[in-house]
Amino acid sequence: MGSKDRILRQKEETRCKILDAAYRIVKAEGWQGLNMRKIADDIEYTPPVIYEHFSNKDAILKEITKKGFLQLYNELKELKENISDPEEQLEAMWMAFWNFAFKNMEMYQVMFGVEMTCWLMKVPEAELQYELFLETIARVMPGEPDAEVVKQKYFSFFSVVHGLISINIVGDGLGGEMNTHILKDAIGGIIRSIRS
Amino acid sequence: MGSKDRILRQKEETRCKILDAAYRIVKAEGWQGLNMRKIADDIEYTPPVIYEHFSNKDAILKEITKKGFLQLYNELKELKENISDPEEQLEAMWMAFWNFAFKNMEMYQVMFGVEMTCWLMKVPEAELQYELFLETIARVMPGEPDAEVVKQKYFSFFSVVHGLISINIVGDGLGGEMNTHILKDAIGGIIRSIRS
DNA sequence: TAAATAAATCTAACAATGTTAGGCAAATTT
DNA sequence: AAATTTGCCTAACATTGTTAGATTTATTTA
Hints:
Two copies of one chain form a homodimer. Chain A contains nine helices and no strands. With 196 residues, chain A is mostly helical. The longest helix of chain A is centred in the N-terminal third of the chain and has 27 residues, at 3-29. Chain A starts with a helix and ends with a helix. Chain A binds a DNA duplex (30 and 30 nucleotides) through helix 3.
């Protein structure tokens, strides 16, 4: 009687379909275009079915956000494994963070609260990328840097990068060269300031 | 027959009361706590009355945001008038920007889109503070700097400051010393990099 | 296999919230 | 004083999140 398995598999599949549908709608129409009825339409069920898989709409957002943080983490981790020089690694990681934001703009919005409710502090998966950066920053710094100082440097990086991403998302975009300039300047500047 | 005046004055007063009520509610309950019925309750009218003064809820948000940008502008302008040294002026202005964000957190959210729909690009009053900064930055830079470069420097400042503000708003706050450290470092760093 | 049970899914509705229609009453004008 | 305009209200509609309860389908039991 392997029906249990099949049923569980189907349940899991529907759950996935809900998340996929939700994010598909969001990519097409933005976060304010998302509602439960559209998700239901998309998966060809009625709205109440969604509530057998998620307790409410927020639970869906949370789950989507989790997946976003995991994806970001994986992209960063791969860089870490493929670049040996710590400074290069650090710069590449922030550039990857930057690219992630624009390749997955709606995801970034919900992850970091850009014109959208923020889930950063509500999903533990957000820690993953944070730890990754802390580690790399510590490797760039000489000696055995104090954890608080490393943290401070992380937020120095994060502030510029996130700030620049934000203004690009809510505004008209600053133009490619201007962004690159500001970004490289800032990241390069902080790296220089911590390396010795 | 001065009744026209009185009527206009009363209309204007109600309009003001609506804006005040709205922002009072927001300060007490956050942006998601704001709705038309609560505003109506607060001004002791029924909801439809609000629509005689504002075409919809967004128009209220927009008007509140306008006032926010004007307030920020005035605070910055006063600093400009009272500090002669350009570098000091610039640093003081960004510190004022920072302080404004935390003294008027909900206002900042709607002005710059932190966990809230953003009105930055939709109200012309936002230009005022921008121009003010551009002017001051140009004064700190030697010679007659290119407008594009000045703009770039503005966004360098803005990115760090806004990024740091954002993370403090959406997160648990980094703690006073850490914030001060990052902020002073960043602002000082950019000033140093542009002054000669 | 037929009855009993459980699971899946639906219809219908409720509550909150933005918004509008239409009516009554007060104020103003003629 | 009559006519008109204005101010304000009640009632309702639409959208959207969510839940209750019926119904149908699938599974288990006898």
